[in-house]
Batch of 4 targets.
Target 1
Amino acid sequence: QVQFVESGGGLVQPGGSLRLSCAASGNLFRFVAMAWYRQGPGSQRELVAAISSGDRTYYADSVKGRFTISRENAKNTAYLQMNNLRPDDTAVYYCNGGPGMVVPEPSRLFGSWGQGTQVTVSS
């Protein structure tokens, strides 16, 4: 089974930036779509951004223009650059991947959900 390990979270003030990393195991990374998800306090997990194997991207409306997803296949790693962070971006951020045109198909995700990385936006 593919494993994903998220890192890069932390405490940041409103308007600040963070860059999250997602390291994947195995040899399938370059062939699958990757995505970042988040789960805020008392909320369900939601899709934030996705990137296809061919670098096509998708963003939730709430993060368009502020977040950028990217991938580096040589390092089996996906990234999420988050700028102009707001308090409502506070959440645990997770990554996962699998088959999909841009967004991984929810029923075919490769990895189990890990611990994620906590992002807290507060002054």
Target 2
Amino acid sequence: VQLQASGGGLVQAGGSLRLSCTASGRTSSNNGMGWFRQAPGKEREFVATVSWKGDTTYYADSVKGRFSISRDNAANTVYLQMSSLKPEDTAVYYCAAALTAAATTSKERYRYWGQGTLVTVSS
């Protein structure tokens, strides 16, 4: 499975962005999907995850109520809608496909990773 993330950019605090992640290759696998982010000098951290069926989602406390994850299995695409963005949301955002169909917050349970897309939030 190859993952291509897009949609990053520069936005002012309080603004919105929508990230997309499109899968190609062996997309017949039923994978839970997740978004992670890594800020300069920090470890990669969990942001959001959605199950294969789209009926279960989890969010990091820092983004709950501001970010929304969704997926369109027909288009092999996962989205991350980000609103009320803050400067501390600045990071490279990575999408990932999990080993199972469940939504999972654990980085270790993700097998495939995209290349990342940079989100910069100015104050």
Target 3
Amino acid sequence: QVQLVESGGGLVQAGGSLRLSCAASGHTDSYYAMGWFRRAPGKEREFVSLINKDGDYTLYTDSVKGRFTISRDNAKNTVYLQMNSLKPDDSAVYYCAAGPTLSGLRRGRTDYWGQGTQVTVSS
């Protein structure tokens, strides 16, 4: 089992920044890949970003490239999402996810999800 706990969401004005954190605990083999997804009201869940265990491979959806940065601290079993230049379209519940493979996590094929943290960007 893997437990994921997110923090760091909130309300911010357009152009502002937030940093999300996700602390993982449990079977470490299950979170070689860690990442973030989001779901806005009335929309499907959307992949945002992922990172491998060594931190030397990252992937982003096009809409956040150049604005969001994913990183991880393996000593703390924590993954971060630094979000800059936020836009109202970034408003969503953000979910942390973990999985044993990058390809699986990219498709959202994992049983390990956090409870979600709300990000609201006002215009």
Target 4
Amino acid sequence: QVQLVESGGGLVQAGESLRLSCAASGRTFSSYTMGWFRQAPGKERELMSAVSWNGGWTYYTDAVKGRFTISRDNAKNTVYLQMSSLKPEDTAVYFCVASRYGRTIRRADYDYWGQGTQVTVSS
């Protein structure tokens, strides 16, 4: 079992940066693929980024490539999402997720979800 707690959301202006953190409980954190989904009002949850257990594989959806960077610190049981050059369309609730299924971008493979943190980007 893994419990995930996000932090770092908030209100920023377009062009600014924000770093989200996700603290995970559980002794097996280092074995999970970790990721970040987001859900904007009226839209489906969408995977933004993911990182394999050792950081050897990363995934970014096209909308955030070059602007977002995912990283993890297995010693601290924490995964991060550094978001730069933020746009109003990045406004959403961001969810930290964990998967036991390796390098996957399938929503169904992400077993564990945090409660979400709101990111609002004003124009």
